[in-house]
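fyi for ur records
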Amino acid sequence: MKPLTSIDLFAGIGGIRLGFEQAFGKKLKTVFVSEWDEHAQKTYKANFADAFDIAGDITKIEEGKIPAFDICLAGFPCQAFSLAGQRKGFTDNYKGRSRGTLFFDVARICSLHKPKAIFCENVKGLMTHDKGRTFDIIRGTLAELGYTVHARVLNSRDFGVPQNRERIYIVAFGRDIDSASFRFPAPADSTKRIRDILEEEPVSPKYYLSKVYLETLRRHRARHEAKGHGFGYEIRGLDDVAGAIVCGGMGRERNLLIDMRQTDRTPVTRIRGEINEEGVRKMTPREWARLQGYPDGFRLPLSDVHLYKQLGNSVSVPVIRAIAEEIKKIIDI
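which gave:
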C-alpha cells in the first residue's frame, strides 16, 4: 500500500512530524520540509534522515516547486498572537518578516496541492486575538479552500507530560472526506509530575544559580509584587507540574527546582559570586525535552542557549500523536 505523504512547514526541530510518525508509522512519508532558522535545521537534521535538504524561508518558495502531498503539517509562528508577546497578529513584523501572515503561505500552498488534511498548532491566544476576528479569518480561509475545519484547545498536562501548556489545534479535512466522526482526543493521562522528568544523575553545577543571581531574582519579584504584579521567578515543587516553557524572557526562571543531589559547588562557568547553597537550579535541556514529550533518543546536539529556544518554541509530542491518531481514523486507507 502506497504511504500517505506529508510536508512539514515551519518545522522547528520536528515535533509535529515526530508525533505524526508515531501515529502513522510507515504509512506516512515526509516529502518536503521548510524551516528558516539554521540552528533549528541542525537539530532537525540530527534526528531525521531525509534524502532532500531542508528548504529555508517558505515565503520565497513557489508552491509549484513543492511535491504533491496528502497532509500539511504547519506549526506557523505563534509569537504574533501570544499573550507573552505584543499580540500584533497579522501586522506583526520580526526582522523584516511578518510572522502574523505566514498562515497565508500555508493557504497558498494548500490551495494548489489540495491535501486531504491540514494540521496547524498555535497559542491559545489565537482564538481571542483581535476579538476573535483573526481566528475567523483563518477558519474562513480554510473553508474557502474547500475544507471542513475543526479546532480545540488542549492542555499538554492531560497527555502524559507534566507541563501546563494550552495550545489551539486546528484540523481541516477536504470536503470530499467524510469527517463527521472526527473527534479531538480526550484527556488520557494527567498523573505525571516534575519528578518524572528529572535527570537520573546529579546535573552539572552550571545549572545551579549563583547567590548573586538568586538574590537579584528575589528583589525583582519583590518589586513587582509591591506593585501588585505577579511577574517573577518561581520554584516548582517536584510533585507539581511545570508552567509552560517558553523560549524567551523568564522561561527558565519560572520553572526553577530545588535539587540537593549536586554537592560540588565549584563553578564551571563564569558567574557572579558563588553557587547558591539552597539547591536552586534551572531545568536542563533534556528535562525540557521530556516536558515536551520527546523520547530520550531524540538528539540535542547544540549548545544550551539554542536548545532552550528550540524546545520552548516546540510542541508537546504526545498531544500531536493523540490528535494524529484521530486524523488517521478518518483518512487512513
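The first helix runs from residue 15 to 24. thats all i got for now
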